[in-house]
Amino acid sequence: MNYYLLEQDLRIPNIATVGDVPENIEPLDWMRGQRLPAPGPGPLRLMLSSMSGEEPTDIIGSLLTLFSDDLKGALTQFGIDNIDYFPVELQHPLTHEVWRGYWLANIIGLVACLDVSRSVILPRPSGARGHLRSFYVDPDRAGDRRIFRLAEDPTLIILREDVRRHLQSLPLGGVRMRHTKSYGGP
Q1: Which of 61-75, 88-102, 113-127, 138-152 shows the lowest mean pLDDT across its residues?
Q2: Does residue 175 register a pLDDT over 70?
Q3: Residues 43/85, Cβ–Cβ less than 8 Å
Q4: CB burial string 149-165: b at 16+ within 10 A, e below
Q5: How does pLDDT run across 30-75, given as a tens digit for each residue?
Q6: Nearest by Cα to 148 from 132, 137, 127
Q7: C-alpha to C-alpha distances, 90 to 31, 60, 133, 161, 173, nearest whole angstrom
Q8: Which pLDDT value is given to residue 186?
Q9: How do residues 2-31 score in pLDDT, each as one tens digit?
Q10: Are 59 and 5 in contact (CB under 8 A)?
């Protein structure tokens, strides 16, 4: 079984990026793989970064992970049911134009399944947990999970190969899905 990273393709010029998050939201909470209450009664309003481009992509990665209507629909159509979605509006800091059709994606499932024997982990001088480089997922420990956050680095969203094939068959923009062995670190 092969596993892939799900991420925004930062190689695309002029992509949209999110700036600061509201004070009532702790970004680390959204990487713990646990269910969370809705961040507000209506859509969460996030400001695009002052350095943001104007090119919307189907995934926007930042301190929070945002999926477009299309990406959300593709995952739901494929039977992915371990993601809680909360509506988001993105506001441009200069024009104040508001983009709709995005969702804060809370991926339920933090899985410790790094295959240490096949992975490259650069040690830190302090002796703290090292930095992942090229890595592999142990399929036995991943179990039947098709999308999850990697416990050894919760910033990373991992897809199983069948989910990747499904997403590749669709016209999604700005979605990068590279093999975990190609990961080079943050």
Answers
A1: 113-127
A2: yes
A3: no
A4: bbbbbbebbbbbeebbe
A5: 999 999 999 989 999 999 998 888 888 999 998 899 999 999 999 9
A6: 137
A7: 20, 11, 32, 31, 17
A8: 72
A9: 999 999 999 999 999 999 898 889 999 999
A10: no
How many CB atoms are located within 10 Å of the residue 57 CB? 22
83: left (phi over 0), alpha (psi -120 to 50) or beta: beta
What is the spatial distance between Cα 14 and Cα 17, in angstroms, rounded to a whole number?
A: 9
Cα-Cα-Cα-Cα torsion 148, 144, 119, 154, nearest 10 degrees, comes to 20
Q: Token match 């399944």: residue? A: 113
- Amino acid letter, residue 133: R
Tokens describing residue 100: 């709709």
CB atoms within 10 A of CB 49: 15
Asked if 109 and 154 count as a contact pair (C-beta separation under 8 A), the reply is no
Q: Tokens 């992970």, residue?
A: 65
| DSSP assignment string, 156-181 | EEEEEHHHHHHHHTS--SSEEEEEGG
CA distance 178 to 5: 6
